[in-house]
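# step 3/5: fold
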Amino acid sequence: MESALTLRKTAPPELSEQSHAIHRVSALEVEIGHGAMSTMKRAMKEVAAQTGVSYEDVMRGLSGHMYWVASTGVLVCVIPLPENDLYLEIPEDFWRIRELSQATH
């Protein structure tokens, strides 16, 4: 599970190629599996420690920059940092789009 998430220093090719359908998604639309979320939080704590950016700022930045690559199913999270952005890739087996409630009141 731990190796399922990929942290990159350069943008994944899918974000720059025109041949891929990229959809920006909100953190409220995304549900990340428990194991992947735990791994992601540990990784973001390490990013915060290495960059001097607070963990809260790293997580806030991460949640505002999420992209679903339709052709691969990967969720790419951009982590904006002062020096260089980082890119976290979450494979399709570890996240999903939340289902909207069909209940009416």
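# step 4/5: annotate
The longest strand covers residues 74-79.
# step 5/5: archive (pending)
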